């Protein structure tokens, strides 16, 4: 798989794992429009690939997972008045065009959450703005001890619009803390991220964190893909609904899913004290 702004690899030592790397290190992996469109293509493709059961997302270089939106490029394009306003445009028409652009942007970030496979992000160095949006859409977050996080958007005069304000409160379960960091754009590090539940683990270096993420992804990849993909779907669906609705949907989902041969395979493997293997999905 060859892309302009991302590297996608499949480590031989970690079966069924895809490693996606944001690859613009000279610009701190800051996103321009083509990057988030490409990111959606990647996650949509990996979502349906039978060769992939878990995904690790990292940033190239030593300095940043991502500095977020490339503000200079955005000011000349996405956020620039000239990109939306013609000489005869009125504000309503400008708003309609901008709303469509924002919706497309949100869809690109949501492709991570919507991906059928579990996604693990590795935060290191600078992780600002869009970086928090992306990580909030992932399933598991691991970081380095030197990580510097910030919900940065208020510093550029806007409210975060790609998912942080919707997802982050549900990730950490600490609404007051989310309001504080979102309203101030102050930085928070590894210890605070771990304390509030934003990250699952902290590792001393990027190498250690990436290796831990790949090992975790490989562990997920060894499980039944029917079970893993169903679990992600049911957790995400139930998160935004009542317990009763979640139970009902789980019952409907499992009425089909429990008919898989994977259950018999797993039970027999347990009795025979061997590691089960599962067919591709």
Automatic annotation (TrEMBL):
The protein's annotated pathway: Lipid metabolism; fatty acid beta-oxidation
Localization terms from the record: Peroxisome
The keyword Isomerase is assigned to this record: yes
Pfam families: ECH_1
GO CC, one annotated term: peroxisome
Main location: other
InterPro entries listed in its UniProt record: ClpP/crotonase-like_dom_sf, Ech1-like, Enoyl-CoA_hydra/iso, Enoyl-CoA_hydra_C
Keyword Nucleotidyltransferase part of the UniProt annotation: no
Entry GO MF terms: delta(3,5)-delta(2,4)-dienoyl-CoA isomerase activity
GO biological process entries: fatty acid beta-oxidation
Keywords: Acetylation, Fatty acid metabolism, Isomerase, Lipid metabolism, Peroxisome
Coiled coil: none
Family classification: Belongs to the enoyl-CoA hydratase/isomerase family.
Name used for this protein in its record: Enoyl-CoA hydratase
Organism: Penicilliopsis zonata CBS 506.65
């Amino acid at each position: 798989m060859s892309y302009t702004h991302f590297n996608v690899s499949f480590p031989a030592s970690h079966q069924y794992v895809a490693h996606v790397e944001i690859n613009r290190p000279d610009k701190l992996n800051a996103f321009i429009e083509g990057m988030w469109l490409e990111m959606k293509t990647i996650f949509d493709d990996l979502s349906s690939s039978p060769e992939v059961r878990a995904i690790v997302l990292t940033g190239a270089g030593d300095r940043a997972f991502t500095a977020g939106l490339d503000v200079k490029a955005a000011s000349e394009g996405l956020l620039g008045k000239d990109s939306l306003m013609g000489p005869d445009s009125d504000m309503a028409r400008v708003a309609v065009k901008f709303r469509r652009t924002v919706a497309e942007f949100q869809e690109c970030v949501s492709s991570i959450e919507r991906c059928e496979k579990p996604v693990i992000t590795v935060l290191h160095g600078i992780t600002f703005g869009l970086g928090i949006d992306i990580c909030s859409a992932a399933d598991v977050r691991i970081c380095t001890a030197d990580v510097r996080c910030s919900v940065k958007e208020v510093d550029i005069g806007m409210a975060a619009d790609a998912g942080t304000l919707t997802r982050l409160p549900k990730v950490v379960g600490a609404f007051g803390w989310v309001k504080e960091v979102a309203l101030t754009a102050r930085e928070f590090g590894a210890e605070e991220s771990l304390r509030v539940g934003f990250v699952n683990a902290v590792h001393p270096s990027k190498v250690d964190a990436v290796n831990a993420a790949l090992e975790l992804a490989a562990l997920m990849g060894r499980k039944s893909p029917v079970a893993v993909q169903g679990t992600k779907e049911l957790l995400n669906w139930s998160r935004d609904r009542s317990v009763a609705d979640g139970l009902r949907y789980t019952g409907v989902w499992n009425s089909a899913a429990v008919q898989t041969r994977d259950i018999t395979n797993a039970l027999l493997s347990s009795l025979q004290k061997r590691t089960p293997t599962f067919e591709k999905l």
